[in-house]
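Data card: per-record layout.
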Amino acid sequence: VQLQASGGGLVQAGDSLRLSCTASGRTFSSYTMGWFRQAPGKEREFVAAIRSGSITYYADSVKGRFTISRDNAKNTVYLQMNGLKPEDTAVYYCALGPNPIITMMRTPRGYNYWGQGTQVTVSS
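The structure for this 124-residue chain is written out next.
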């Protein structure tokens, strides 16, 4: 399985970005897709996830600002990020997992495959 993330960039506080992650090599629709982020000197943290049935989960820090969605026909998961803040600055990673339980879904251990990461920088 290969995951290719894109869409990062440098924006100002309050702006929006949409990240995309396209998967190849596996039946995409059967798996949970997640977005994580990692800022310099910090651990990788959960951002959002979407199950095969399109149930979504969010970190409290992004709830109401970020929206995760998936297009199974395109093998792609999206992360729409609105109202960006400087503290959202990080490398964002997409991940694919075999429908982990909720507690595992919010940790990197719940995922088997990872994309290469895309940098999001939000200036104040």
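Known properties of this structure: The chain has a mean pLDDT of 95. The helical segments are 102-105.

See the next section for split statistics.
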